[in-house]
Structures are given as C-alpha cells and as structure tokens.
Specification:
CATH class: Alpha Beta
Bound molecules: S-adenosylmethionine
CATH architecture: 3-Layer(aba) Sandwich
Distance between the termini: 26 Å
Number of domains: 1
Length: about 210
C-alpha cells in the first residue's frame, strides 16, 4: 500500500506542481461530466478519479482529443487520493454524481458518502468550498440528509443556489428521476477525530454494487 500511495503522490505532484485549488470529481466514470465542466471553465483545474481503470483510460482519451489542458483523470480510490494530495492543494469543488448506491442494507457501509468521509473531505476543503451530490437512489439521498445535522463542517447551501453546470452523465441518462444536494464547507475547523479517515479499501478494478 505504501508503494501505491507513493506512486499516486508522484502522479498527483506532476499534475499540481504548485499549491492550488482544484475541482475534484469522485467516481467520474468515463469523464463525460468533468470534460464538459473543464471546457466550460478553462481557468479551473479539474481532476477526476475512478476505481475502474477502463473508465479512466476512456476519460483520458477524451480529454486528450479535446486538448483540455485543465482536465485530468487518475485511477484511484477516492480516500487514497485524498491522503496522497500534496500539501497546499485544496478542494474548491467536490462532485459526487450518481455514486454506487449499494442498495442492500448490509452493504450501506460501502457507500462513499458517510460521516467519516465528509469529515476527511473537510480537512482538504476551505471554507466556502462546495460539494455537489446527485443520486437516483432515494434511500441514499435520505441517508445523507439524515447525517447532515451531525456534521459541523458541512451545511446545506441556501435554497435556490444554482447547479453550476448541467451535463447529463451516463448514469443520469439511465435514471428515471434523481435528487441533488449542494453542501457548503463551514468555517468550523476539521476536528482531529475527523481527520482520521476510515480504513482505505483495497484498490480493485471495479466495485459493483451487489
Ligand atoms: C454508478 S457509477 C457513476 C459514474 C458517473 N459519475 C456517472 O454518473 O455516470 C459510480 C462510479 O464510481 C466509481 N467508484 C466507486 N467507488 C469509488 C471510490 N471509492 N473511489 C473512486 N471511484 C469510485 C465506480 O468505479 C463507478 O465508475
């Protein structure tokens, strides 16, 4: 694991030679959304991660074809990526679009958006950073809403705050309906307990919800 983290750190360091704020997409799939976002906001540095190497390969091909210098993709587990971030890199926006819903109760622990993960994110996100979450799983959406009161480092954005960019993802196209949530990083310091992220799962080629 140490070697993999060192390799990941080196890859990230090559993309961010100097400290900067980034737009990060977790579970970017084939990169449809982030590519479009990077084209719309050329001054923002965008990076997508996904566990599935085949998806990252396709995403990279697309951003090369589009000659998008501000759009990068890395195959990585989200939490491992966080821990490999060079000092000074901050998360200005975090996008979580149609994350694996893990519908069975005994698999809920595999969902990416959990208290510990929000806490870990808070350590890298400055005050005012945004987290954009969209899902077609009502159960997942309600679970995230239910844990919000216990999070001091994230709060729901004011009603009516616009979604910065609408661009249908692969999973959005398949969804009958979906719900969206914008969270804002509060000025509260991330507590030391919050910085301790949960165990990093092994990096697999893909993890499918059972
Ligand atoms: C349901 S797909 C959604 C893909 C894309 N966001 C969309 O809306 O079309 C979820 C994606 O998250 C990726 N994923 C799951 N757990 C992850 C993790 N811990 N770190 C990075 N990517 C992850 C999966 O490989 C998969 O590509």
């Amino acid at each position: 694991m140490a070697a993999r983290r060192a390799e990941l750190r080196a890859k990230i360091g090559a993309i961010f030679p100097a400290p900067q704020a980034i737009v990060w997409e977790i579970g970017c799939g084939h990169g449809h959304f982030l590519e479009r976002y990077a084209a719309e906001f050329p001054q923002r540095l965008c990076l997508g991660v996904d566990l599935a190497s085949e998806r990252i390969t396709r995403a990279l091909r697309k951003s090369e074809r589009g000659k998008l210098l501000n759009c990068h993709f890395i195959r990585a587990d989200a939490l491992e990526f966080l821990h490999a971030l060079p000092k000074g890199v901050t998360l200005q926006e975090i996008w979580v679009l149609f994350p694996d819903p893990w519908p069975k109760k005994r698999h809920h622990k595999n969902r990416i958006l959990q208290s510990d993960f929000f806490a870990a994110l808070a350590s890298w996100a400055p005050t005012g950073a945004r987290l954009y979450f969209r899902t077609d799983s009502i159960d997942y959406f309600k679970a995230v809403e239910a844990l919000l009161p216990s999070l001091i480092t994230w709060q729901v954005a004011e009603a009516g705050e616009p979604w910065p960019l609408e661009h249908e993802t692969v999973f959005q196209a398949r969804a009958e309906s979906y719900q969206s949530l914008i969270l804002v990083r509060t000025p509260h310091r991330a507590k030391s307990a919050e910085i301790t992220a949960p165990e990093v799962p092994p990096l697999e080629d893909s993890r499918s919800p059972a």
